[in-house]
TrEMBL record:
G-protein coupled receptors family 1 profile domain boundaries: 6-210
Protein name from the UniProt record: OPN5 protein
Keyword Coiled coil attributed: no
Recorded topology in the membrane: Multi-pass membrane protein
Gene3D superfamilies documented for this protein: Rhodopsin 7-helix transmembrane proteins
Family matches, as PANTHER family: OPSIN (PTHR24240)
């Protein structure tokens, strides 16, 4: 309920001020779409199955649940990655260069994110990787057991782990560390010229916020 309400507020706010949205803010809207999509398509089945102590649907609903989870999960991860990269580029560019990140550019990025997520989600349906019940049997996802039992499953899980989790996560960490370092250097310069009082405290706070 909180997920649906919270993300609905984000979408409603974005819709009301659509003409005022800056291009990077479209990624926040996309993240809200992915999160609310996951909540609507997956949570009811998962909650009902948890109360039942077993998966309520059959094989078809299991594949559907896993597909939705993978689609929206990868989309959320890649959106967070794109947000970090764009914020890093804006922080480390001059004002004229940062304005080059237009709404059209971000829209293309969003389309690529959805296509990338859809590709990974349908790969198990066409023969690379598998979907199946999770160990507790109340939800479905990638068949992790195939990591040891099948070369097909092993190669899919390893590739997915690297390209959909490790690489995006490392990119996010690197970008935000870069932003923090940029803020640190900027306020170090301000401290050196003593333009503002308590510069060191302000530097620490802004670095932490970044």
């Amino acid at each position: 309920i909180l997920t649906i309400l919270g993300n609905s507020v984000v979408l409603a706010t974005a819709l009301r001020r659509s003409s005022l949205l800056k291009s990077p803010e479209l990624l926040t809207v996309n993240l809200a779409v992915a999160d609310i999509g996951m909540a609507i398509s997956m949570y009811p089945l998962a909650i009902a199955s948890a109360w039942n102590h077993a998966w309520l649907g059959g094989d078809a609903s299991c594949v559907y649940y896993a597909l939705m989870g993978f689609l929206f999960g990868v989309c959320s991860m890649m959106t967070l990655c794109a947000m970090a990269v764009i914020r890093f580029l804006v922080t480390n560019s001059s004002k004229s260069n940062s304005n080059k990140i237009t709404k059209n550019t971000v829209c293309i990025v969003i389309i690529v994110i959805w296509l990338y997520s859809l590709l990974w989600a349908i790969l198990p349906l066409i023969g690379w990787g598998y979907y199946g019940p999770e160990p507790f049997g109340i939800s479905c996802t990638i068949a992790w057991s195939k990591f040891h039992n099948s070369s097909n499953g092993f190669s899919f899980i390893l590739s997915m782990f690297l390209l959909c989790t490790v690489l995006p996560a490392l990119t996010i960490v690197a970008c935000y560390l870069g932003i923090a370092w940029k803020v640190h250097k900027a306020y170090q310069e301000i401290q050196n010229v003593d333009r503002i009082p308590n510069a060191a405290k302000l530097e620490k706070k802004l670095t932490l916020v970044s």
